[in-house]
Write a structure and sequence with these properties.
Layout lengths: L29 H8 L3 E2 L3 E4 L7 E3 L7 E5 L2 E4 L5 E10 L4 E5 L2 E3 L9 E3 L22 E3 L8 E9 L7 E10 L2 E13 L3
Parallel strand pairs: 1-13, 3-13
Antiparallel strand pairs: 2-5, 4-9, 4-11, 6-10, 6-12, 7-11, 8-11, 12-13
Length: 195
């Protein structure tokens, strides 16, 4: 099991695109072009840390029309080579839920690692208006060997558009390492139960 994750790395960059993106690594060469056209290999360099990696985040009385944000697990690079995360996404989104993006936040801006947030709800204790926070999506998350993702964390933004009968799950991470592309699923589960 991974140790505690510190939010002190100032030099980490974290970016998560709403769709999988590929960073160019000398794409003018034939070999690089061929490698980008093949599917990424299954990776194992990352470990998930924090509450989303071990429990279920969610809300027991979800309503149609509300928008929720749930934190992805924090990422720890267990290998000795640098990892550059290019995107994240959920593998399982049930009917009734519509993913509207994968924003990235800094724990410094949000005064800590926010596990979940409902948009427009000002009366919930500890609630923060995430729409006013800087979104750092757009650049790769750079995690050096045997280090964590630092101050930055990704969230999924979900709108409830119909009845949801299953949990959202399967945090997919796409990254490059040593010039190769990888994809890896880490555990996460989000409940928007409708009673």
């Amino acid at each position: 099991m991974a140790g505690p994750v510190r939010f002190t790395r100032r030099n980490s960059l974290l970016a998560v695109a709403a769709v999988a993106t590929v960073l160019g690594f000398g794409t003018s060469s034939t070999a690089a072009t061929a490698s980008m056209s093949t599917p990424p290999a299954t990776g194992n360099a990352l470990t998930a840390a924090g509450p989303p990696a071990f429990g279920i985040l969610g809300y027991p009385h979800a309503r149609i029309g509300t928008v929720w944000r749930f934190a992805f697990p924090l990422f720890v690079n267990n290998s000795s080579m640098t990892v550059r995360i290019t995107s994240v996404r959920l593998d399982h989104v049930p009917p009734g839920a519509r993913v509207e993006g994968y924003p990235v936040y800094s724990a410094k801006d949000t005064n800590g690692y926010i596990l979940d947030s409902m948009e427009g709800e000002k009366n919930v204790p500890g609630s923060r208006d995430m729409t006013t926070m800087p979104d750092y999506a757009g650049r790769p998350i750079v995690i050096r060997g045997h280090a964590d993702s630092g101050d930055y964390y990704a969230m999924v933004r979900v709108r409830i558009v119909g009845h949801i009968g299953e949990h959202l799950s399967g945090c997919r991470v796409n990254y490059t390492q040593g010039g190769n592309r990888y994809t890896q699923e880490v555990r996460c589960e989000y409940a928007l139960d409708m009673k």
